[in-house]
Amino acid sequence: MTTHYFISDLHLQADRPAMAEGFFDLLARLDDAKTLYILGDFFEVWVGDDYSDELVDRIKASLKALSDRGVAIYFMHGNRDFLMGDAFANACGADMLEEGTVISVGDQKALLMHGDSLCTRDQAYMNMRQLFRHPQWQAQILSKSLEERLALGKQIRSESQSGQQMKADDIMDVTPEEVDNALTEQGVSLLIHGHTHRPDTHKWDFDGEARTRIVLGDWGDDHGWLIRWPEDGSPTLERFSF
């Protein structure tokens, strides 16, 4: 087990079974995995750890089986699953990871983020994000019934989709200055994130330092995206078919 894997933006949901099956198939093929990092928006919407259905139960069991094989699993909050907590993570044999965590692979380091906090040109979203991530607001939402939370999740998702159609394309991407600020603050030159649904590997120089930003893609009904990072190699972004 010598390889670290990174995925993001699966947006898993019961009414898209092909995507879910693609995820389960990937888990079955991670024979060399040392670590699996899931960097946010694992679910299309998450209304609390007390919710479950057939798909959620199967996800818990499949990830717990992977954990029992010795693979370390980490979740990071996204903008769709910010209510995910330790109860769900523990059921999967996983741990929650703070936004902006720095990891080491061999002699290299990387900054891990979901990526939405870097999209500062979208001021309306940043205001909403501040509300959604506030502990008091989250506690208030979690005190509601499951039915109320499911209705609220559906409403937020609908408003988000409508709002995105009205925004300029570049507003919803990361702000370059924020990327450099985050890397400089953590003292690293590699950033891995998702959120923007714009898979690519970006390379540039900043104050004489070579920097890299690898963006994970969102999953579809016939393909997924991952980053494969061997202990003795470099991270590579890959698109794979189900």
Give the arrangement of secondary structure elements.
Blueprint: E1 3-7, H1 17-28, E2 33-38, H2 54-68, E3 72-76, H3 86-91, E4 95-97, E5 101-105, E6 108-112, H4 123-132, H5 135-142, H6 146-164, H7 176-186, E7 190-193, E8 200-206, E9 209-215, E10 223-230, E11 236-241
Parallel strand pairs: 1-2, 2-3, 3-4, 6-7, 7-9
Antiparallel strand pairs: 1-10, 5-6, 8-9, 10-11
Helix pairs in contact: 1-2
Count of beta strands: 11
Q: How many domains, as an integer? A: 1
Percent helix: 25-40%
> Within the largest sheet, what's the order of strands?
4-3-2-1-10-11
> Residue ranges: pLDDT <50 for 5 or more in a row?
none
Architecture (CATH level 2) name: 4-Layer Sandwich
CATH class label: Alpha Beta
Please describe what this structure looks like.
By secondary structure, the chain is of the alpha/beta class. It has a single domain, classed as 4-Layer Sandwich (Purple Acid Phosphatase, chain A, domain 2), CATH 3.60.21.10. 33% of the residues lie in helices and 25% in strands. It has seven helices and eleven strands. Helix 1 (17-28) links the parallel strand 1 and strand 2. Helix 1 (17-28) packs parallel to helix 2 (54-68). The protein is globular, with a radius of gyration of 18 Å. 32% of the residues are buried.
